[in-house]
Specification:
alpha/beta; Helicase, Ruva Protein, domain 3; 2 domains; two-stranded antiparallel sheet; 11 strands; globular
Length: 327
């Protein structure tokens, strides 16, 4: 990017990011880390999996962000009886009023939106889960031999409940890998919980203002890909993902069946670029890679029975990798 023009774009995006956080804060109390990670993924053009117990405003957060970005929003409640056509759409038989000819007309499903909330995505069988695969990867949907392009920007934001496993279908690794981030949604702090309960039981919900449109987001996504990255930062990301596979870090390799692949490295760099630009910096540093390592790697490291026996979690292994992999 030209230095003068580039600084102007950075200043503009930093200002937009500040306005966006301010509008989200009118509705969502706390959850600063979750909001930051979600916005990083959105501006990088990635999909997110939000994991947290019920009642932590995951659905409200997604709908609020969609409203602030002035995007078309749809919500799909995943259930065991949900069919693929309930997501992608279906052909219906119609009769032409003039010719009396019967023709099939395609009715678009809820996946034809800018922001798709896949609520409790692990509640539906793999056949229906896979209906999102093509949409998430290729940004198009094929129904009845005909392919339909999805409008950009397009984000799938899925939620999962980590404590309720009865009647669920764990997402296959191939589909998990299509999510840029796995975002852990925790309980609020004491002060935040006090404010949440006080605010939501005494006043009506505030309607946030729109800050950006779809064309603005696409422009930002293209700009982020042009952000330069030093070989040092790129090298750190590569060393990090390779260390998860090669077993060179003490007390990591023996607990993993599979490590992270090249897609994890791509998302580490894209996330680092986006985080840097959101903070008004022209290029990312190693701290930016470290900041996005947990949401990028959380669902890409597959632990084995040794980890379960020793009580070692994926979070523990990511922390060890970040601690041991040199700058």
């Amino acid at each position: 990017m030209d230095e003068t023009a580039g600084q102007g774009v950075l200043d503009e995006f930093e200002n937009v990011h500040t306005q966006l956080r301010r509008q989200i804060a009118r509705v969502i109390i706390g959850q600063e880390r979750v909001i930051e990670e979600l916005l990083i993924a959105l501006f990088a053009g990635g999909h997110c999996l939000l994991v947290g117990v019920p009642g932590l405003a995951k659905t409200l957060l997604v709908s609020t962000i969609a409203h602030c970005l002035n995007l078309r929003f749809s919500r799909i409640q995943f259930t065991p009886d949900l069919m693929p056509s309930d997501i992608t759409g279906t052909d219906i038989l119609e009769e032409d009023a003039e010719t009396r000819r019967r023709i099939f007309r395609f009715i678009k499903g809820p996946v034809f939106a800018n922001v798709v909330l896949a609520d409790e995505i692990n509640r539906t069988p793999p056949k229906t889960q896979s209906a999102l695969l093509q949409a998430m990867q290729e940004y198009r949907v094929t129904v009845g031999g005909e392919t339909f392009d999805l409008e950009h920007p397009f984000f799938v934001l899925a939620t999962q409940n980590p404590i309720e496993l009865e009647g669920t279908y764990p997402l296959p690794e191939a589909q998990l890998d299509r999510f840029m981030f796995n975002i852990s949604v925790d309980y609020p702090s004491l002060e935040e919980e006090f404010k949440i309960i006080d605010t939501t039981t005494s006043t009506d919900l505030v309607e946030p203002d729109s800050v950006l449109g779809g064309h603005d987001i696409v422009r930002i996504q293209k700009m982020i890909k042009k952000v330069p990255v030093s070989d040092v930062v790129l090298g750190f990301a590569v060393k990090l993902i390779r260390a998860s596979r090669e077993g060179g870090v003490e007390n990591v390799g023996k607990y993993l069946s599979w490590g992270a692949g090249p897609r994890a490295g791509q998302y580490l760099i894209l996330g680092a670029k986006t985080r840097a630009v959101m903070m008004g910096r022209p290029t990312p540093d190693i701290d930016d890679v470290r900041a996005v390592a947990f949401p990028v790697l959380r669902h890409r490291l597959v632990t084995n029975f040794h980890a379960e026996a020793d009580g070692v979690t994926t979070e523990d292994l990511i922390a060890r990798l970040l601690d041991k992999v040199g700058d």
